[in-house]
Design brief:
By secondary structure, the protein is α/β, with parallel strands linked by helices. Helix content is about 55%, strand content about 10%. Bound molecules: shikimate-3-phosphate.
């Protein structure tokens, strides 16, 4: 088996790598790859919330509303920060950075990577999804365009690195993130 030189130096990366970005931008897929390469555990905030509450995301939205889901995200993030979490890859739900206090926690938790994709890719990747109640609208393309426009400044406010995944292979995006994080952690 070929040894990856980046993975060999895994101990250099002491903080966390956090992936933010809109639904369908590849946070879970890329998060899994970065976590495998670095041998860091992967925390997926959506999955953790689902496990803890014992309900799917559409059900949480339906029964308790979006604001309640946002509070669950804040509680989880606070817990990660309080536990001095390190050497983890954290893949976040697309709306987690909406609350300013969450963005502050994200910045303190580690290196924040904003994954972007164009509307066509997002639409294609999300159209068969059952886990995204906010996109269950009469015109998902219009919804995505509107939400993307609203959220640009929010992601930008907490991101250390921006990567558009549209024209990149998963392996290239993964390598880019790990190299950039290494550089960042060597400086700060
Ligand atoms: C949301 C994104 C979803 C999930 C929920 C709300 C959002 O996560 O947390 O449906 O507001 O953008 P993904 O980004 O993993 O799809």
């Amino acid at each position: 088996m070929q040894v990856d030189p980046i993975a060999e130096n895994e101990n250099d990366l002491t903080k966390n790598i956090i992936l933010v970005g809109f639904m369908g931008c590849g946070k879970s897929t890329i998060g899994r790859q970065v976590s495998l390469q670095l041998n860091y555990p992967l925390i997926d905030t959506d999955n953790l919330i689902i496990e803890r509450v014992g309900m799917g995301i559409p059900e949480i939205f339906e029964k308790h509303g979006e604001d309640h889901f946002r509070s669950l995200e804040t509680a989880l993030l606070t817990q990660l920060a309080d536990a001095d979490t390190e050497k983890q890859v954290i893949s976040t739900g697309g709306g987690l950075p909406l609350r300013p206090e969450n963005r502050a926690i994200l910045r303190n938790l580690g290196y924040v990577v904003w994954l972007q994709a164009g509307v066509d890719s997002i639409l294609e990747r999300t159209q068969s999804s059952t886990n995204r109640p906010l996109l269950k609208t009469a015109d998902p393309r219009q919804t995505i365009e509107k939400m993307l426009a609203e959220r640009q400044a929010i992601y930008s406010d907490c991101a250390d690195l921006v990567i558009n995944t549209d024209d990149l292979a998963i392996a290239d995006t993964t390598h880019g993130i790990i190299e950039s994080a290494r550089y960042y952690f060597s400086k700060y």
